[in-house]
Amino acid sequence: MQYRSSKQRKRILELLRSTDTHPTASWIYDQLKGEFPALSLGTVYRNLRILQEQGEITHLDFGSTFDRFDGRMEPHYHFVCERCGKVMDVMMPVLSDMETFSCPQVKGKVLRHRIEFFGICQDCLKQD
Ligand SMILES: [Zn+2]
Ligand SMILES: [Zn+2]
């Protein structure tokens, strides 16, 4: 699907590419509302959805409490701190064998997989 290119969308993408914090839509909104006074949170969500359809970003779905977006497109895993909610990239080798191994079980075609590690981040550990 083709979309008219939008300056807002371009800035949202730049912002997501420039951070590894996997921000929420409201964080993005807060960063850009000074620059685009007419911007609304709804517009941010709509543009995020378009960027996702275009394959420019990924949506990280951690259930209802998390709604985060990732501008890093090479395959990678994530670590989620269960104390502060921080989401970090885990740049370990992607285990593409797992997809091959799972095929006989699925009896269909496995296209991708996700792995999330959960625990307590370094910063939170220091506070103990
Ligand atoms: Zn933490
Ligand atoms: Zn990531």
Write the layout of secondary structure elements.
Elements (H helix, E strand, L loop, with lengths): L6 H11 L7 H8 L8 H13 L4 E4 L5 E4 L6 E5 L5 E4 L6 H10 L9 E4 L2 H5 L2
Parallel strand pairs: 3-5
Antiparallel strand pairs: 1-2, 3-4
This protein binds zinc ion (ZN) (2 copies).
In brief:
Helices cover 37% and strands 16% of the residues. It is α+β, with helices and mostly antiparallel strands.
**Care to count the β-strands?**
5
Enumerate the spans where pLDDT stays under 50 for 5 or more consecutive residues.
none
CATH fold label of the largest domain: Arc Repressor Mutant, subunit A
Q: What would you call the structural class?
A: alpha+beta
Provide the succession of SSEs. Answer: HHHEEEEHEH
Annotated CATH architecture of the largest domain? Orthogonal Bundle
Q: What can you tell me about this protein's structure?
A:
With 128 residues, this protein is an alpha+beta fold. It has 2 domains: 7-70, Winged helix-like DNA-binding domain superfamily/Winged helix DNA-binding domain (Arc Repressor Mutant, subunit A), CATH 1.10.10; 77-126, 2-Layer Sandwich (Dna Ligase, domain 1). The protein is 37% helix and 16% strand. It has 5 helices and 5 strands; from the N terminus they run αααββββαβα. The strands form 2 sheets. The chain has a 3-stranded mixed sheet with strand order 4-3-5, with no helix packed on it. It has a two-stranded antiparallel ribbon with strand order 1-2. α1 (7-17) crosses α3 and α2 packs across α3. It is flat, with a radius of gyration of 17 Å. Bound molecules: zinc ion (ZN) (2 copies). One zinc ion binds at residues 22, 70, 72, 76, 78, 89.
